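Pasting two entries for a bug report.
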Amino acid sequence: MMESNNKKKSMGSSHFEKNTLVQVFVKKNKTSRRDFLKWIGFSTASVTLAACKGPVIKSIPYIVKPDSITPGIPTYYASTMMDSFDIGSVLVKTREGRPIKIEPNLTSKYFNTTSVRIQSSLLSLYDEERLKNPFINGNKCSWKVIDNYVITHLKKISKIKKDIVIFSSSYPSYSTKKLIQDFTNTYPTTKWITYDAISYSVALDASEKIFGIRGFPLFDLSKTELIVSFDADFLGDWSPENLAKSYVNNKIPKKSMLKHIQIESNMTLSGANADIRISRKPSEINKILFKIYQKIFLEKKINENEDEEINKIAYLILEKGSKSVIFADGNLESYILSFLINQKIKSNALQKNKFILSKESNDKKLQKFIIDLEKEKIGAILIHNTNPIYSLPFSSKIKKFFKKIPITISFSMKRDETNETMNVLAPIPHWLESWGDTHPLTGFYTLIQPTIQSLFNTRQFQESLIIWGKIPEKNYYEYLKKIWEKKIIPQSNVSSFNEALFHGVVEKKENIKTNKLTYDYQKKIHEYGVKLINNEKKGKKNLELRLYTKISIGDGNQHDNPWIQEFPDPITRTTWENYLTISSYDAKKIGLKNWYTGNGSMNGNCVNLIKNHKILIKNIPVYIQPGQGIGSIGLSFGYGQKIGKLSKICQGKNAYKVYENFSLIQKNIQIKKVNKIHKFACFQVQNTTVGRNLVKETDLETFLKKSKKIWNEEEKILTHKGMLPPEKISLWEDKNNKKEKNGHHFNLSIDLNACIGCGACVIACHTENNVPVVGKEEIRKSRDMHWLRIDRYYSKKINSSKNDKDFFKNPKVSFQPIMCQHCEYAPCETVCPVGATSHGMQGQNMMIYNRCVGTRYCANNCPYKVRRFNWFNYVNNQKFNYNMNNSLGKMVLNPDVVVRTRGVMEKCSLCIQKTQYVIGVAKKENRKIKNEEFETACSISCPTNAIVFGDINEKNSKILKKIRDKRNYKLLDFLGIRPNVSYQLKVKNLK
């Protein structure tokens, strides 16, 4: 693998023209090998040339090779992924002009991790159901017709002084903001309304009141020793910037190791990783936060008669002082209380003069917009990349108002509930086909650059504004470059626009003045506390609903993405749907159950969700979740769309229907059992290790004070010579037990203290290795195809008694990534009758697919159960109508990895194609391979660096240090099969 700085090549195109050859290729029903080679040799060259050097006038055969493209050699571009919910600084890997993988841009200080959604967004580029042409009133037309139609209407509306509303999700683009200002000069009644399906408005309101800045505070946890989180899933989607990396940097076992206390209702990623987790319903959490605020901010004396947990938490915060940080989620007061406590203790996690600007939600402005709609003050609406008719709680009301507006324009990639009601459909390109920039953080700017020519007849939103607003620049690229060269580059750390493109990110000095706290909150907060206590008595009988986001689906913007839908939720291990999570205590009261069928799949009861005697959502499946707060239920956003190719397969429910007043907590909820039975698609139905010591854990005090023999006991095997460690026993080696390992020998290490279970590695593996999507029915039959899985286990807490009654109330959660362990003495190899699986000199267990006859003996003999059997041809099979069933979707496939056929076994290869590529490059350049140059797809994508891969024959390698660490152990080592994958024991700070 090349170093990240050598990966990036900038692109300097001014405008992209259409490549009809690509469209012809896409329209073919089937693609033969000959067709593919013709396409590679002819049209891809022109696509790539267009992307790199400007408009193409004539096609160029591949015998005249573009300078920037060498067949078989990847090219990397620095860019930024941005949609309605996510933002990330990335490197885009392209092969022969096709983007095939998204990787993190590690040269960026911020937003430098690639989540499940960021990586999966690649597949949306090759979606056959994208809008391919503009439409007026349902009729296909040209862009020229659209321009004349829109300009005529905008002029009329401007004359009668009705509002022209640009309605979009948060769009932190410096150049776009300037462009809309210029557009407003032409049409003075223009207004820009920001609407995020999942609102960050209360967090921004609280920040504005406390700090004087309408931005989300930036936190850095690398020097923090105590985190107390009040229902804030900060390892999930609570903060717009991923906090996992700085969190894990301080989880290295040492005396000052981070202690994490999570008080929450739903079981979240943050709660699953917490040292101490306290399960409560939302109203109780708010009450605990208020009492802690009183003890810390108002210096109220700790009352010994009060809840012991509150006293302990308050004492810990006061003891750690500035090394503590408080997080809170929910209502405005929760954010205000947490910010005030952080200010009082002078938390070092709160970064001064640094605010995240990627979220711009403003509920007050949105409410004013709704009033203007009702009064018919709006003459035109331009909806950019958001779907309010699906996501607004009062969408049916909005739909009626939209129909009364003279001209409605939708800028989107695909058909959705909103653009079905629009006059004009102006299809926009994918972010991988677009130019753009972002300003997501104080003093931090990024660029978006195209990595492929537009596949369809689409046009950027900004390009349309330039034409309709009669702005002098010819296109958006010129506008963007001019703005950057004038306003950003001169005061930044780069000297030219091309240099900025190369790095993808720039930094610029910006001085932000924050408020000193002058507003007296004490009276207001006291009134809030009194309300909390009074409201607690009123709704005690009813349930409290906590709405949340899954790390796979997010706000639902990418709901039609098969990779995302088939990604197993880290906590529940389910796919393809959402459900109501409920505690076993509340489920028993109502008579709700989950049960297993004869084939091992899981079924469950369904309920109606009721508020104020009105059914809001019918037939929601119920998932009994260990650790769910008693008296609370959970439901995730992002499901329930009616339009899209996956809408029939994914039978999820629309949680936005109950998102009243944009509040994540809905009170006075009732549920009523119905007769419907739901069939879950679960990756994992075994929830415990059945007493086996698979995920080794200990507490910090034991780790620091006691011998390794106590907390990481070496497994031994009984032999005729007594108890011996596995490495001293062999059927094959000589008496001296010496085996020469010449050349490279690859190992992989997984630090369980650093793995948070986010699943970024799962999608990275899926993308790199052409793993097929199999669908909900096959998942139910345990025929999933992921080469890498993250097992989740529930167990009793460390040092708990045997009769722990709180096991289901609040269990300990452990994550363990499992892939092929590449055993030196692999049991799969000895039973294969045709020698399809064998061992390589570099320590990798290899598969020869065209020799495999599918006996599945290897799968039966594998103790880790990591081999996957291909039950079907997933390519060109109408039963599996996903990305491998059409020519456009196949463009995402990695040409370095074969697409497997029916009847063969497949599994993790430790990315042998990547290791051999590195070896080949070094050999060609006649040099030694650089330290840590070897990487796998999972190690590159891991946001916390939990996965480390390398050559153990390299003396200074990270992997060798990991293996020699005293926390190191091998899974099922007592079998004597000597895996080349090892784990590092998890340490929890319980003191």
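Entry 2 (this is the one that rendered wrong in the viewer):
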Amino acid sequence: MTDRAPLTTGHALPPGGRVAADRAPSASPLPRALTRRLWPDGTVLERQLPFAVLSAAAAVTLGLPGIDVTAVAPVVVAGGLTLASLVLALVVPWRRLRPSAQDVLPLLQIAAVAALRMGTGGLGSPYAALVYLPVITLSARPGRARILVATLATAATVAASSWLDPTVDQDVVVLRSFLVAASALAISVFVHETTERQRAYSARLEGLQVAQTELLERTRESAVALQRVASTRRAARDQLISVIDSATEQAIIATDREGRVEVFNPGAERLLGYAQGEVVGRMHLTDFHVRAEIDERRPRHRGSPPRGGSDALAEQRELVEALVAPARAGSADVRDWTYVRGDRTTVIVRLAVTRRVEPDGSVSGYVVVATDVTAEREAALLKDQFLGLVSHELRTPLTSVLGYLELLLDGTEPLSDEQREYLQVVERNARRQLRLVSDLLLSAQVDAGTFAITPQPTDLGAVARASLASAAPAAEQAGVTLVPAVQDAPLVADPVRLGQAVDNLVSNAVKFTPPGGSVRVEVAPLPDGGALLAVSDTGIGIPADELGDLTARFFRASNAARRAIPGVGLGLSITKAVIDAHGGELDVQSTVGEGTTFVVSLPAVPPGDR
């Protein structure tokens, strides 16, 4: 048997420790030591020692008065068998043999008891009780068959003790054999069942010890992982705070679910004019807003004044709910608000509100990022005022000038060639300025979302032919050849707006093509009833990294600016707006030094008319 180290409460036994049969704290050391030697947890040699010690004590008592040694030879044999069991227990490699081989040792001890009884009076020998030690040792081992062996061997010792005394009554021998065998059977059964329970208990303890070791290891690993996660979260939090604190151009405000401020970064201090200590834990998000703007979004109790006590708290919650309702629903909420600064002045901010979500899905608060857009909104207002000024102060006079120029050119009064030339120059420049004003106004309509088209049955081929006719004089003057490839392509569209788009594409192609180059205009119907327009030139081309910005207002390609080619950068933005309004698509392909191709695809009917 190998030594075991069972689990105890909270601590494991040291290596080499054994499971005692009796773990009760009140058990005395002597019974525990004897039990440990006799029980299966002792080594093979330890289990033979109690019998050897008692046999040695019996040998000492052989010379005492009253001890009758009737035959010396059996006594010597008994001593030899006892010594043999000790030597065998010490020198035989029992772990290499089958477990049943160890049964030889208690059987030798039982034979020694039988021999000792034969030499010391037979049935009346005072050493008969020694047989119970090997019986206990044998029956303590696994297997119920050993109980039967121990019982029969005990009965045999009684029978063998009468072999040298023929005068003994055999009925007495049989009766005593039966009684001793019955006693040995009872002891064997008790010892066997007790040791079986002890083995099961030890196995459970071993399992618990293994489980405890695994649990401790997992606990250590979990603690290390938890510490690593905590360190990572602390580092991430510190980094996030550092990033938030370094954002000075945006005001970042974090609140709890009730709207009370928890984070107020330096950008918020600069924008709102409050110190962090004045705000965190003391003010609500709604304290920075114009009340009327929040009331507009409140579903009920609009404009009702806050009341005291719990009603005031409910009012505050309602204001916060109106402010963060889209973010609470999970959608992005970015719009303009008016913030009230600490000095009671106002500032217009673009506000992005997002919710903070806990792992269980509950909302723990909100994060608000505010950007000062006051200058942008003022610029937009100035732009609107400027466009209104352009419309009223430039467009009307230019229209009047052109009208009077037509009267002069077509009038009955004769004009000299020089006068007519001067008037034509005036007319040409006036029309150019009027186109610029019209483009500015159209661009403003697109930006304001008021741009609209008036669809009607139209032939894109006819629109393209008209544009080619209009561009012919400029192309001839620039030395550029126009190459038409136009087919009839009927569709439903706004012919005026579509004409503007085609005019812009053709005039741009002529303007950016050097003398000797060509501009090809193709129109063809599409199988689904729409139309395709392609305007290709052999001009200077557009850098690849600037293609995405072509349709932005006032954008001009870098090579066009270097060559001082006239223009303000509105034509393509207007063209894109017209095409988008018709539900079409605009694609551009260009190579610097080789030319550019604009491809327009239009549906048969605009989306709004289907």
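Dev reply: Rendering is fixed now. As a check, the viewer should reflect this: Confidence is low (pLDDT under 50) at residues 1-28, 34-41, 300-309.
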